[in-house]
Amino acid sequence: MSDPKVFKNFINGRWVESKSGQTFENRNPADTDDLVGIFQKSTPDDVNMAIEAAAEAHKKWRLVPAPKRGELLYRVADRLFKEKEAISRQMTREMGKIIKETRGDTQEAIDMTYYMAGEGRRLFGMTTPSEMTNKFNMTIRQPLGVCCFITPWNFPIAIPSWKMMPALICGNTIVIKPATDTPASVAYLMKVCEEEGVPPGVVNMVTGSGGALGDALIKHPAVKVVSFTGSTEVGRKVSEGCAGTFKHSCLEMGGKNVQIVMDDADLDLAVDGALWGAFGTTGQRCTATSRLIVHKDVVAKMTSMLVERASNLKVGNGLDESVEMGPCINKGQLETVLGYIEIGKKEGARLETGGEELKGGAYDKGFFLQPTIFSGVTQKMRIWKEEIFGPVLSIAAFDSFEQAVEMANDTVYGLSASIYTRDINKAYVAMRDVYTGIFYVNAPTIGAETHLPFGGTKETGNGHREAATAALDVFSEWKSVYVDFSGTLQRAQIDNA
What we know:
Layout: E1 9-11, E2 14-16, E3 23-28, E4 31-40, H1 44-61, H2 66-82, H3 84-95, H4 99-119, E5 126-129, E6 135-143, E7 146-150, H5 158-169, E8 173-177, H6 184-195, E9 203-205, H7 210-219, E10 223-229, H8 232-243, E11 248-252, E12 257-261, H9 267-279, E13 289-295, H10 299-311, H11 331-347, E14 350-353, E15 372-375, H12 382-385, E16 392-398, H13 401-408, E17 413-414, E18 416-420, H14 424-433, E19 438-441, E20 457-458, H15 470-474, E21 476-484
Parallel strand pairs: 7-8, 7-10, 8-9, 10-11, 12-13, 12-18, 13-16, 15-16, 18-19
Antiparallel strand pairs: 1-2, 3-4, 5-6, 6-21, 14-15, 17-20
Helix pairs in contact: 1-7, 2-4, 3-4, 4-5, 9-10
């Protein structure tokens, strides 16, 4: 893919321009002089065309044996593996996070694709004894049909793969609308699918604004499930849009994740975890460590250690291997984070380090912010309660383990949490009592692996999970099958009573 390039929509196995005739630019958030690509500003007509292509393709794709579908995914995974560096460098240019992280993002897509390819020879159901004689009972999975995906900008190829690969292996066809800030990675994925032999119409991509395309993606009668990752506000609208026609929806939304540090913790390890959890991906992860609660006896020491480390993080263009934190995704997000920093100051939190936009030299071409730490944060503050989605860490102190658990649960979200302690008893109690979908012991709140379910509780999601075999339940329907070979009418719960 030469640079710059005009990228088209991918519909029914062809690269096509939008019916609008309009396009939009995708620029590097670390260097806005760098034009990554030009993309189609799609219309509802484009969406309808993609959905209709997917619906038609589903008639044949669902009948392809699952192991054969898996073989195609293996080929896609092999290509992603071979082209990992090219994908990752393009991703750093369009999203901004450092090259080490985009390599990890691409690796997630590789891992998920291999994993789901293997499911083609499993997709296990269940056999179980019947209560009747000469009768056989089993369960099997069946595909839903057309799946629509609305994906975010912070993991431009990993999250699309979490949705695409389990949907495809189950026999569904897909239409994906990537985030307007990061469509190039999904376009790359479409190109790989095309070249590795995924049949026309099985995978489709339209680019453009979620506001302009959302209703068309959600309300088309051929769409059977909508999978969305993004803000809780938009996720609520997706849920409401699906409810009218009883479409399935899978929602992965906000987080206000907490790291608990007990007084017996290895503080060097806890600092490493807090830095990575808070400032990895410039804090732009749903699982980012936004709240750090530390035992009162060690909070001063840990705060000092953190401030020293955070103030020395190297911020810049993520293509530089020595850079430790990249830019915010765009000007709007930068301004949102700066706004929250002002809120924190006004609420009385102590700004320990950072808090300023980085300017001068190469910084003037991007959306850079200093790693920011507040201490003295209380549970009444907005920076304690609201998702910031930027490099801002709020530190609060606690007196007892029981108070730490209460503080950890003091959020409308429930995605990820962690505890640092040498006390195995407290670790297990925290695992049980902190109400989140993901929990870590002596590790940060980020770092999920593809073979475990991913998702959260409360306003983080609607109960479904991505990744691992749990994702198969999102993209398939169970069918219970009864085979009676007795040659007589047998009435369950009646004739055997």
